[in-house]
Amino acid sequence: MAPHPSGTPAVAVTHETEQPFPVASTEEVTCIVSSPPSPTRGTGGCVEAEGSGCRSATRKLRARRGGRSRPKSESALSKQRRSRRKKANDRERNRMHNLNSALDALRGVLPTFPDDAKLTKIETLRFAHNYIWALTQTLRIADHSLYGLEPPCEEMGSPDGGSPGDWGSLSSPVSQAGSLSPATSLEERPGLQAPASPAYLRPSALAFSDFL
DNA sequence: TAGGCCATCTGGTCCT
DNA sequence: AGGACCAGATGGCCTA
Question: Please, what are the domains in chain A?
Answer without folding.
Answer: 74-145 (4.10.280)
